[in-house]
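pasting for ref
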Amino acid sequence: MRRVTIALDDDLMADIDRFMARRGYRNRSEAIRDLARAGIAQSAEATIACSECVAAVVYLYEHEVRELPKRLARTYHARHDLSLATFHAHLDRDSCFEVTMLKGPSGEVRHFAEHVIAERGVHHGRLVLIPLPAGHGQHGAPPLALRRAGRGG
């Protein structure tokens, strides 16, 4: 087993300590290994490939970090073909919460979401990706409700 040194801020350390107490971990290494495994597993689930999907990018960010709101707006405008809508809420003086709805090819949606979440000042981002059935949104294809009911294709 390799030994790795990492730097964590006080708030994150306190969160890890609370997590450890709730779950009964004996040491931080065990807890952090399990948290890393869970993050890797979650990331693997997000690699589901589909030609067309809808998605939500959910994230918390500090709006005062180096013009982050402007950078995010430029990002969304640059990919207006993927971006459907954004819900924005002010949580306190410094923090904002956003949910952005996307639609498009899964690889492009995933890449876009990863770019947003990786922005400096964005915290706790997550992508929820939902594959669409083949043929969804094409002219002449029956609506999803009819296909589920066994009518229309």
